[in-house]
Amino acid sequence: MTESTRKPELPPDENPWKAAGLVAGLGIELAVCIGLGWWLGSIYDNRNGTDYGYITGVVIGLVSGIGSAVALIRKYTGASKP
Fold this sequence. Notes:
Elements: H1 16-48, H2 53-77
Keywords: Membrane, Transmembrane, Transmembrane helix
Transmembrane segments: 20-40, 52-73
Protein name: AtpZ/AtpI family protein
């Protein structure tokens, strides 16, 4: 093969499949946290006759999902806690 047609070698820690897995994991994790918060908030609304429980659940799910995503990114990049 000539030099111009050869693909460049990737360093062993820059696997594109690993990055794709991270992105997919982040999306799934965030969606599950938000969905679980909505579901628990809806149960709260049904039991107590309120209309704000699902919104509170979604916000709590979003915050916990972001926190979990940050932890996953830190684990992936090898960064330590501040």
